[in-house]
What we know:
Blueprint: H1 6-15, E1 19-20, E2 23-24, H2 25-54, H3 65-73, H4 77-88, H5 96-136, H6 138-166, H7 171-188, H8 190-205, E3 213-216, E4 219-226, E5 230-235, E6 240-244, H9 245-250, E7 253-255, E8 262-271, H10 276-291, E9 296-307, E10 310-319, H11 324-345, E11 355-357, H12 361-368, E12 376-378
Antiparallel strand pairs: 1-2, 3-4, 3-7, 4-5, 5-6, 8-10, 9-10, 11-12
Helix pairs in contact: 2-3, 2-4, 3-5, 4-5, 5-6, 6-8
Amino acid sequence: MKLYTLNDLIAYLARLDRVLVRxxxxxxxxxxxxxxxxxxxxxxxQRLLIRILSNSLRPKATRMDRALINAVESTKLWLVVxxxxxxxxxxxxxxxRTEARLDKIVTVAVLLQVGLWISALLDFWVATSRMxxxxxNLAAATSLSALSFIGKLLLWLVMLLFxxxxxxxxxxxxxxxxxxxxxxVALAVQNILGDLFASLSIVIDKPFVIGDxxxxxxxxxxxxxxxxxxxxxxSDTGEQLIFSNSDLLKARLRNYKRMHERRVLLNFDIDFxxxxxxxxxxxxxxxxxVAAQPQTRVDRSHLKALAGGAYQFEIxxxxxxxxxxxxxxxxxxxxxxxxxxxDADGIQFSFPSQVLRLExxxxxxxxxxxxSEAPEMKR
Length: 379
C-alpha cells in the first residue's frame, strides 16, 4: 500500500482548482482544517488546564486555582467556533461586506466570552468572601448577595453597550430613549423593584444579618438567607418562613441576637396571714437569692401591692448573658431557691381563690318567693 506524505497532500490540494464562492476548493479545505484545529486545540487546552489546576497536591497549588478553574470552565466552545472561523477566513476571499460582518460577529463573541470569564471570577470572589464572612462578620455575608447582583448587572450592561456600539448602534441615543421606556417598565414591575430596593436597604442599614434571631409579628426564627426579593427564616419549630423584603421592613421586627442583656420580672403572692415582720424581710431575701446567681444583676425588689387577699411582691433583675437557655436555667434555680427558703422559714404562698354559689332547695324556694339571694361559700 502506498503511503502519502504531507507533500503529497499539499500537491494534491494545489491541483484542486475548482472555484467555490470566489475561492478554490483547496482554500476552503484549508480554512475548514484551520477552524477545526483551533476548536480542538482550545478544547484540549481547556481539559488539560482543568486537570492540572484540580490537582491540589502539585507543588505550586494555591487558593486561586479554583478561580482559574471557574474561568476555564466558563469558556464556551460555541463562542470559540466564531473566533476559529475568523482565523480560517484569512485563507479565503470573502468580500469586504462579508468580512466586515464577520469582524462584528467575532467581536461580539469575544466580548461575551470576556464577560463570562469576569462573571466566573466574580462568583468565585463572592463565594469565598461569603464563607469567610460567615465565620467573622455576618453583616458582610448578608451584603454579598446584593453586591454580586449589582456587580453582574453593571458588568453585562457595559458589555451590552460595547456590543451595541460594535454593531453600529448609536449608544448615546439609545440610552436617552431608554429613559422613557424605563419609567414604563418601572411602573409595571414596581413590586419587584420595591423588594429589590428593600434588599438594598437591608444590606445598607442592616436591621438584621444572617444568623440573627428575629421575631416578625407572630413568627420567630433565625435568618438563613437575604435575597433580592425575599428573606428566608428558619422558624423555631423547624419549617422555613419566606418573607417579602418590602413587607419585612414594614413590619415591627424584634432582633434578639442584638440583645446584650435580658430583663426578667418575677411576681408572686404571699399569704395575707403572714406577719408584717416577716413581710418586711422578704424583699432583702429575694435580693440575696437572685444576687447569688452568676450572670445576674438585681435591679429592684419590692412589696408591690396588697390585693386579692395577698401580699404581692415583684423583683426585677438582668441576665448579663442574654442566651435563652441560660435565662431559663437561672430562672429555675431562683424559683427553686425561693421555694426552699420560704418552706424553711414557714412562709406560705397565696393562691387564687374562687367563689362558688351553691343553691339549696330551700334557697331556691325562697328565691322563688322573692326572698334574699343564696349565701356565698368560699373555696
